Structure formats: structure tokens, C-alpha cells
Amino acid sequence: MYDDRRGLPGREVRRRRELALLGFTLPALGWFLVFTVGPLVSLFYYSMTAWRGLIAPRTFVGGDNFRRLAEDPVFHHAIRNSLLQLVITLPIVIVGAFMIAYYLSLRPRGHRIVRAVLFTPVLLSAPALGMVFLGVFAPSGLVNGFLDGLGRSAQARPWLAEGTTAGIAILVVIVWSSMSVSAAMLASRMNAVPDELFEAAELDGCGHWRQLWQIAWPICREFVGVVTMLQFLWTLFSSAAVVLLLTRGGPGTSTVNLSFLVYDYAFNQSKVGYSQAIAVLLFGVGVLGLLGIRRLFRADF
Questions:
Q1: Are residues 17 and 106 in the same domain?
Q2: Residue 9: which residues within 8 A CB-CB, separation 6 or more?
Q3: Would you say the C-alpha torsion 203, 209, 212, 215 has a positive or negative sign?
Q4: Average pLDDT of the chain to the nearest whole number
Q5: Measured over all CA atoms, what is the biggest interatomic distance in the chain, rounded to whole angstroms?
Q6: In terms of pLDDT, which residue wins out, 237 or 9?
Q7: Which residues are bridge partners to 50 per DSSP?
Q8: Residue limits of the ABC transmembrane type-1 domain (predicted)?
Q9: Does 113 have pLDDT greater than 60?
Q10: CB 26 within 8 A of CB 253
Q11: Are 134 and 22 in the same domain?
Q12: At residue 301, does pLDDT exceed 60?
């Protein structure tokens, strides 16, 4: 081919066009390298240092931080709590959100109001969310007041001051703040399912329960996997804010999880290098979890 306008071969024209397009991608590529790849590389480097903060000197210690983690009982407790939070909240949030989404897809009366209400947790900042649930679980708060109204005042307790109940309170907050947003996302996907499928199933005698799990679930399975990944990442990495605002890991270490431990060691105990070793392991767990979820929800066709 030959370009008569410039006297250039067609291959040369294409090459120049590709270089021009590449030039448009360079700012985005530079941003990605500086603000994504750079911090990730520095994370692995700092995990192998003894470093107490920004103005403190750094000493390279190799794998010592990881060896110390193997003997750290607080770290072991954090692993257990993080696993419990994932194992308990993920099924509850995803299954509950999917059922809410199916209900909204039926377009009952007032469904638009319900959709708007579902975004209420998003409108609450983390400090506001913490204040709300501090009031709910306070000794004179909503939960104990409700028990008093039922004549069960003997069962009232300081929910956030006891190890077992504080852990349950953290789980309740995670589920409450996550389920509504997941339901809204799943409802948007379910609206794309043709109504004729549900109408045909109803004519064949399928009730809502069978339509939910035998029609809606297989169709939305891959999107459910995406929502599950997002919820997995939020619970694993962002639940530190809930722990920080409600219990600060207490009483003792009963509500410490891995993401909170990264914050606590770095900012409260000035063990930045040690905290980054936990962050590296947290990163590895996140990658493996995403791969596992992707494989679990992979389409069979």
C-alpha cells in the first residue's frame, strides 16, 4: 500500500498512527506505574526492613519480620478473626443480597423507595457509622433498651466490652453495611434477565423459590462472582475501620483482624516494617481469594 498524500508506504503510516495512539496511553501508564506498581514494590521492600517511621532510619533485616510473625500470638488471633469474618459474613451477605435483589426484580409496590433506602449505608461515613452502632450496642443503647422492653433485662450486657459479643457486634455491622449495596448491584443485573423466562417458569408451576435458585442464580452466576470478589476485598482490607471505631481490637485482642493489625502496628506501635510484612501476607491472601472465587463462580458453558 502507498499513501499518495504524503508519499509514505502504508506500513509506515500505520506505524506512526500506532505510536501516536501509544503516546495517548503514556500518562495513564505512568500513573499506573507510579501509584500502583511503585507502592506495591515498596510494600515488599519495607516488609524486609526494621523501620519505626518516616524520619527513623531503616535497617534491612531480610525475612526476620516474617519469622517473628510465625511466633506472634496477636497475629495468630488476627488470622482467626479474619477467617471467621470472611466465612460468616460472605455467605450471609451474598445469599441475603441475592434474595433481596430477586424481590426487587418482581417490582412490588414501593420498590423504588426500597432501592433508595438500600444506599443508606453508603451515605454514612465511617465515623458516622461508628457513632450509630456505638449507640446501638452501648450499655444504655438500642439493643439493651429493646431487651428491657421485652422483659429480658437480665440478658442486657455491655456488648462491646465482652470478647464474644464484641466479635458478634463487628459481624453485624459488616453484614448491615455490606448487604444493601450488594443487593442494589445484583438487582441491576437481575433487571436485565428477560421477564419471559420467569413468566414461562411460572406457567410451568415453578414457585418463586425455584425461580430464584434454578433460573435467576445460574443466569447471574458470573455477576454474583464479581459482587462476591468486591465483598471479599472489602471484608479483608477495609473492615479495619469498623474494628477501629467500635472496639480498637478489644477487649484484649478479641476483635483484632489482619487489616486492623496493619494499622495498629504501623501507626500506634511504630513498627512500620513489621506491619508491612503483615500487609504482604494480606496481599497474598487477597490474590488467592480472588482466584478461588473466580474459579468457583466461573460459568460452566
A1: no
A2: 1, 2, 3
A3: negative
A4: 90
A5: 93
A6: 237
A7: 59
A8: 79-293
A9: yes
A10: no
A11: no
A12: no
Q: Is residue 152 part of a domain?
A: yes
Q: What is the pLDDT of residue 1?
A: 47
Residue 56 belongs to some domain of the structure: no
C-alpha cell at 99: 434474595
Number of domains observed in the structure of the chain: 2
Could you tell me if 230 and 86 lie in one domain?
yes
What is the per-residue pLDDT across 175-186, written as a single tens digit (0 to 9) for each? 999 998 899 899
22, part of any domain: yes
DSSP string, 195-260: HHHHHHHHHTT--HHHHIIIIIHHHHHHHHHHHHHHHHHIIIIITHHHHHHHTTT-STTTT--HHH
Instruction: Give the model's pLDDT for residue 300.
Output: 63
pTM confidence score? 0.88
CATH code for position 156? 1.10.3720.10
Domain shared by 127 and 158, yes or no: yes
The string of pLDDT tens digits covering residues 36-65 is 899 999 999 999 999 998 788 999 999 999
User: What does the pLDDT look like over 14-37, one tens digit per residue?
Assistant: 888 878 888 888 888 899 888 889
Q: Of the candidates 235, 268, 266, which has an alpha carbon nearest to the alpha carbon of residue 250?
A: 268
Q: For residue 6, what are the domain limits?
A: 2-46
In 3D, which of 292, 301, 294, 262 has the Cα closest to residue 279? 262
Residues whose CB is less than 8 angstroms from the CB of residue 202 and which lie 6 or more positions away in sequence, other chains included: 211
Q: If pLDDT is split at 50, 70 and 90, which confidence band does 217 have?
A: very high
Question: Three-state DSSP class for 49?
Answer: strand
**Torsion sign (Cα): 73, 79, 82, 84:** negative
**Ramachandran region, residue 248 (left: φ > 0; alpha: ψ -120 to 50; beta: rest):** left
Half-sphere exposure of 61 (CA within 13 A, CB side): 20
The average pLDDT across 220-225 equals 94
On whether residue 60 sits in a domain, the answer given is no
Same domain for 106 and 33: no
